[in-house]
Design brief:
This protein has 763 residues and is mostly beta strands. The protein is 3% helix and 53% strand. The strands form ten sheets. It has a 19-stranded parallel beta sheet that branches. It has an 18-stranded parallel beta sheet, with no helix packed on it. Strand 64 and strand 65 form a beta hairpin. The longest helix is centred in the last third of the chain and has 24 residues. About 9% of the residues have low confidence.
Length: 763
Amino acid sequence: GEATGDGANVGGAARGGAGTGLSISHLGDNAFIYEGDISVTGGDATGNAMNGAEIRSVNGSTGLGINHGTFAQGITGTLINRGTVTVTGGDAIANGPLEDGTSRSAGGSAYGINTDSILDNSTARVIHEGTINATAGNGPDTRGIAVGILAGDEFADFGPGEVRTEVVVKGTINTDGDSLEPSSGVIFGLSGGVVIQTLDTSSVTVDGGTINTMGTGSNGIGIMARESTVDIINGGVVTATGADGAGIEIFSQFTNDYSSGDPFESATSIVVIDATSSVTSTNFVGILDAGTNSLGNFGGTRSMPNPEVFVDEANQTTVDLAGTVTGGNGTAIDLSTGEDRVIIRSTGVANGDVLLGDGDDRFAFEDGFTVNGTLDGGDDTDIIEADIAMGDTRNFDLQPLGLQNFEIIEKTGDGTLNITGAVITDSLLLQANEGISQVLSDQDNLSADVAAGATLISGTSLFNVTNGGTLGIGAGVIGDIGTLDVGGDLVFETTGTVIVDIQAPNMGDRIVVSGVATLGGTVQVNALGMIDTFEADQDYLFIENATSVNGTFAAINDNIPDLDVTARVEDAAGRQNVILSLTAGDPSDKSIYPNTLQAAGHTSRLFAETLQRRAMLGALTGQPEGPLNDSNGLTGESAVSTFGTAAPVYSAWAGVFGAHVDVDTSLIATGYDADVAGFAMGGEGYFETEGGSYVRTGAAFGFSQNDVGSGLSSSTAETWHAGLYASIEHGFLLASAAAAYSHADYDFTRGIPVTGAAPLVAT
């Protein structure tokens, strides 16, 4: 219906009549399915000022397509819309001046589907598969509100968790309308594709569907709920084109406790965008956590649109991005206050800045992600997560992100993190808690704290370094000579180990420290190249240019026989260096090494001789040495073929072998004792050729153990053998051959005599 209000001496008011296409009330769990078309237009309203009067207000009326509610306790009321719903709000026309300080005059609102739950333990669910077109009416002050699907609970006197709202969009939603004061956070005055206002839990899933919104402050999706999830999946598209309209906006929620004076509390929300889907705001933020809300006069007045105080709440919002988010104002994601988390997958693209806002926030990533803007952690303590599984490697290039306002990179998992990129301007701490962390580029403002069990590798520059795990210098833990520059302090904790490679005097791993060096833990010296080229009294500069050196190393280990590595501190032009020196250790008998190798030769020879003896068996007699053509009755007629040649004979065999070796000590060599024991087994075939030759072929394997004693030292060698052998006999000639391979695993125990004490044993 249409309305006209005429005022002569006082202000007049007019509002058009509202229209609803279909109303559904659920009393059970069965779903309503609507497949028709609905078209509803709200009534226009006209206000006429006469004889100098002012118009108090004039408002177009609402057009509502489907009104859907759950009106029974403990049920799930489902509406499936497969039809086309077209709704239009009525226009508001003011013929004359509007009265100042009164309610605003606006066009009528348009709602495609409105759904709510008014009883506890119930769920209102809408599955939209068709098309919704919602267009607000025009008005003197503002256009009306346009919402595709409006969902919520009706009353505020039910406790948390008792009602739930679910919306699934598989079809299309188009809206065109303005929000009331879009910057205020008034959820009830929002325009948008899907708007949810509930005290409890809610979910929105855009499953291959499309949401397009137009109008000032009109969001693609707007949510106010205690807990909410938003999933944009399977090619879902959400687009907001109006000024101040976000792709997705999240608000704090109402409570039913007004006694505290704060009727809001923080909300927990999860937004997931899969690799095939996108969220876009043409003129505003792609995903916005508003963190504000208000109560009271949602219409406001013309001179004071929203007089109430807005309340900031610290929402906890997680954004899991594998698809694309675009912010037309240069901000893709803005999570405002709260302990928030952003995950960007390998396929994720953020076109614009990613702002985590105030609070202790976290950022996680996969290789290949893209942020076309700044990645800003905001105030408080913000963490970059790097949880990498064993066998995986993840690369993190700090510079292209415009990384700022993060405090910690947290490395967990047994995989490898590679940090690259140009020097960042903010101070940042790498907490290497597990696995391997490699810093591959100079990072003068990056400090590192390595926990026990974790490994840090770097041959570049860092700020402060504290090592309680394993520190490798250069491009690798072992085998690469490098230099690590520490712009601040260096601390070796008691649980830590630093690996130091050395190759020649003053050619080894080095750490240049600008601050204080505190020694502790273990130094593992790894000599590269020919071990026998290292000599006593060789020096290696290890820590250079420290302002001061405190403490001592608990242990220094090395791989150099008969040389010990010691550390000393030297003054150098007002600063201090740490020098590693090679000193002559106690002499020890090293003969166990060559003696073991010599004894191992007996083992391989015994196996090879076994194969040779098998190959040299003659004819069918089984006798070694020489050709014998007489079968001696070992084969009967059945062993001779009709062509006059012997049929093949196949056999398996097994044998044992052993030896005891006793080599006496002489003036120039240390003697040793060796005991060898082993077995061999194999299979072979023997056959006669048509030319009268006899051929034998076979294969064998075996195992042996070799125990060697040499002075105070001993060794054990376990050896696996494999071999092939063959022979051919013709007349008085026999040719045979054998080839053997042995793989040995050695265990050496060296006894090192120390004056005045029992021998120390090093394995």
